[in-house]
Ribosomal protein S20
Amino acid sequence: MALVNAFSSLSIAAPAKAAGLGFKKAVAAFVPAPAARVSASRAVFTVEAKQNKKARTIQSRNERLYNKMRKSEITTRMKKVFLKATALGAQEACSEEEIGDLEKLISEATKAVDKAIAKGVLHKNTGARRKSRMSKYKQDLRRSKGLLTA
């Protein structure tokens, strides 16, 4: 509303839609009317907001939820890997078959991490750190069970 009051002294018509845009953006959004409507004494301007703030907030909200969904999926898959590795570590002995199941979980989690990196949800170093952490659990398990072949 303050923007409308500021321009009223200049005898420029500004609709209420321009309120809240900020002075620089509102001034940049002014477009001169067609030549037929411009008189020598004053120019008639119309305000056209270049950005629809409401649409932008909906878009950012959707992107945030999408990113949150991806991160949650990664966290869940990593927890499954860690729980499986801990359970196998607590057993007296484990076979290559059981470690194969763990490798399958790691593969699924790695795929989710790589997708998140490709979409820009995670930074590549964060993704590498998470994948390394899962591999370390598997290597430590193999080492402790005597299944590591050099």
Remarks:
- The CA atoms of residues 84 and 131 lie 16 Å apart.
- The first helix runs from residue 2 to 8.
